[in-house]
Amino acid sequence: MHLVTTSSNMPFDSSLANNFAGIRTPFYYYDMALLALTLDAATAASGKHDYHVHYALKANANAPVLAAILRAGLGSDCVSGNEISRALQAGFLADTLTFAGVGKTDDEINLGLKHNIFSFNCESVAELEVINQLAAAAGTTARVALRINPNVHANTHHYITTGLDENKFGINTWELDAVLQQLKHMPHIALNGLHFHIGSQITDMSVFQSLCVRVNELNTWFQDRNIVPSYLNLGGGLGVDYTQPDKHAIPDFENYFGTVQRFLEPLPNQQVHFELGRSLVAQCGSLITRVLFVKKGTNTNFAIVDAGMTELIRPALYQSYHYIQNMTSDASEIESYDVVGPICESSDCFGKAVNLPLTKRHDMMAIRSTGAYGEVMASQYNLRDKVKSIYSDQL
Ligand code: LLP
After folding, report:
1. Which ligand 1 atom lies nearest to the CA of residue 202?
2. How far, in Å, from the CA of 336 to the mean position of ligand 1?
3. Best mutation site among 200, 202, 313, 375 for ligand 1, i.e. most ligand atoms within 8 A of its Cβ?
4. How far apart are CA 287 and CA 305, in angstroms?
5. pLDDT for 163
6. What is the C-alpha to C-alpha distance for residues 85 and 80, in angstroms, rounded to an integer?
7. Is-contact 39 280, C-beta < 8 A?
8. Whose C-alpha lies nearest to ligand 1, atom 19?
9. What is the DSSP letter of 361?
10. What's the pLDDT tens digit per position in 193-235?
11. Against a cut of 0.70, is the pTM above it?
């Protein structure tokens, strides 16, 4: 992992809080210099092996974030028609756009066909049939990768594990013989790639090693049947350090791509693609919030803040940990607080028993590592306002 001071070289303290004077909380703050450094590290490491990286828009689809990613030369990975439109609008080329998802609507498929996207990542025989029909009606051929369920355990939270037989994602290996038979009758499908994605927030490289070994077996299986897809797409999943965001601001892309390089055995001329989301954008984002009230509970103190699960649902949904800092308290005394939001749900809690300097009304807090799956998962429950975004280079 690389050691980096937060890019704008601003620790999350009162001087950064001063820069936020006049901005109404809660809001997401994006450190654009850190994003640029992260993208540099990712492209340097992937470039060494001629790997192709698509950015998974589902992690964060804000225009300035997309502009930075486009400048870094990445392709895009979309999971809905609206994401396809957003990616194209941002300037990503259809020729570098992958489209995943177990439940693509006809309109979404037609949008992909209209733009002749790089790849429909197909997740079932039923979907292949529909794409074939719609492509025939449009007088075109769809470029397709089969998303295969490799049955490799990602050792991550069960809600973000996707590559097991029990998951809804992908085509199971026992179906592959039948799929190849059926593809013979689908002239509007061009089978170009094999696609895999086993889960998210994976920090154990041996998981990616196991994936590579499984992909090699499946690639050989296809080769034995005289099919050599032009690319292998290993999906995303590289995790970040939520506990020490400043110490490990940039994920170890060298190790990640290096692991794939060591264990994946692509055939000659077979390209290798990735779809990274979290690892590129998580650390550059923080949710900034203010303390409304401090309340004594029976066993604990509550710091009630003005952000809630409506702005950041990860702790409530996945019991995920986010590092929380009080940016403005200069007290030396440390107290333990449950940091909670204002929403009428007991799960509306950002952290239990968080040690913070003595905290009072109006203190500003940063909930760190929220650039990925933070703002995009926000809701308007309780008729909350849409959360704002502030960018370090626009302050
Ligand atoms: N490709 C596919 C097919 C995916 O389903 C995903 C994420 C990615 C790529 C990007 O994965 P990443 O590099 O970001 O791990 N909301 C959850 C995460 C859901 C991930 C869904 N799929 C969270 O907040 O942890």
Report:
1. 15
2. 33
3. 200
4. 11
5. 60
6. 9
7. yes
8. 160
9. T
10. 999 999 999 999 999 999 999 999 999 999 999 999 999 999 9
11. yes
